[in-house]
């Protein structure tokens, strides 16, 4: 059992070695605290699954020693797993007002509003959890109330950045100044636990104010309807788009439930004060095309989001030749095929498309190398501990920090227990980590029998065989065979004849052991399928005694 003693431990259960699903644990004097509880999105290797959750078995077994969950900001990869996993941990949550508003909505949707305690902490507020002290330190990001955490421990102070960037002209909120960050560094920081996402970018991420100028130019030049797609959670971009609609004299329509939710919570927390009034879908379609601008979800190719439904003509919003779609977001690696499918459909309709390759319509919410270098200069940590990145990102940040004079560093991955103090950083153990899937309403192991069976079904297909056996042990009638996903196409009938014959021959072999008989039929049918198709499908055999 890993129990922190008179030391400071760090353990990532998610978000190290991957971008997404951030879960970080800090431990000292027998107690743990969790920073963030996020999810990630499934790819084609998880058929039928949308969401991937972290496996929290390690801390669930130590829930009595967990003091609370502290959230840095409201992106799904930092708070998305809360409605599925937090109730089982039985500890309170801590978040600033905007992030708390998003969390509260998630908990209420799952009927957990009264079961999970949520403490709302003011921006720049402080609180204590046992031997840990926390102070929220505002940093710029693409969502309101992006925060670092200054964590006080008996063994030194941690500066946990969360997601961040530097922005001289932020549209939402007031990030900490260079002088304020330097003051934190002046008091001493043991470890900087830092976002690694854009460490390979030689340029700074850029200001949101510059994106407004780029979007103004693109949309002012457009002739028909304009649809702009961006991440729903990018409230700073939503604010920019509201201003662009006013700049270009277009009325604004919003398409996407997640956008509606973000706008509602942002307004309730005092953001988006100058956001223009929106019109509904019917009004948007009645107005002259040159007077309408639509903000829609779905820029990453999500099949059920508004943009995909619009592209495939299953939405009240319609686009036609001469209209323009602006992709005001970065294409996430792995989404190229899904995005390309939508873009090809739009191109078929004569819709013009603008991405960040054609115009300055997007800036990142994560720091490039110039910003990282400044943060090292201000905070002056003894240790750099990269997180929030694939292994190549984290290893590069460790190298870059060393070149900038950070004395010590360590590259870790999910499940590795680090001792940060005393005498750290050092790898002191390994704990089991993994992934869970949200399959419908059920949470399952990501590599358990259900998903493995589904992968095999999707890859090989299924044959269901039903054989009736009479009292003499002989086949009665003709075996019934159903095919799903077997590549026989126009040869289907001929294949079925041979498969039935193979099943009957195996069934008439005389075995009185039902398990052996079922296996003989299964192998005979699968062998025939392999001869016809080169694939070995799943064969399910039922025997009926008559």
Please give the share of residues in helix.
25-40%
What fraction of residues sit in β-strands?
15-25%
Structural class designation: alpha/beta
The oligomerization state is: single chain
| Count of strand segments | 28
Spans of at least 5 consecutive residues whose pLDDT stays below 50 are none
Provide the spatial order of strands within the biggest beta sheet. 8-7-6-3-2-1-22-23
Average of the residue pLDDT scores: 94
Indicate the radius of gyration in whole angstroms.
28 Å
Distance between the termini: 57 Å
Largest pleated sheet: 8 strands, mixed
Structural shape:
globular
Structure description:
The protein is of the alpha/beta class. It is 32% helix and 25% strand. It has 16 helices and 28 strands. Strand 12, helix 5 and strand 13 form a beta-alpha-beta unit. Helix 15 runs antiparallel to helix 16. The radius of gyration is 28 Å and the shape is globular. The N and C termini lie far apart (57 Å).
Task: Reconstruct the topology from this structure.
Layout: E1 8-14, E2 23-28, E3 31-35, E4 40-41, E5 51-54, H1 57-60, E6 66-70, H2 76-79, H3 82-89, E7 93-95, H4 97-109, E8 118-120, E9 126-129, E10 132-138, E11 147-153, E12 156-160, H5 178-186, E13 191-195, H6 208-221, E14 226-229, H7 235-247, E15 251-255, H8 257-268, E16 278-279, H9 281-286, E17 292-296, H10 306-311, E18 324-327, H11 336-348, E19 352-354, H12 369-379, E20 383-387, H13 391-403, E21 408-409, E22 416-421, E23 426-430, E24 435-439, E25 442-445, H14 449-460, E26 462-469, E27 480-484, H15 492-507, H16 514-533, E28 538-545
Parallel strand pairs: 3-6, 6-7, 7-8, 12-13, 13-20, 14-17, 14-18, 15-16, 15-17, 18-19, 20-21, 26-28
Antiparallel strand pairs: 1-2, 1-22, 2-3, 4-5, 5-24, 9-10, 10-11, 11-12, 22-23, 24-25, 26-27
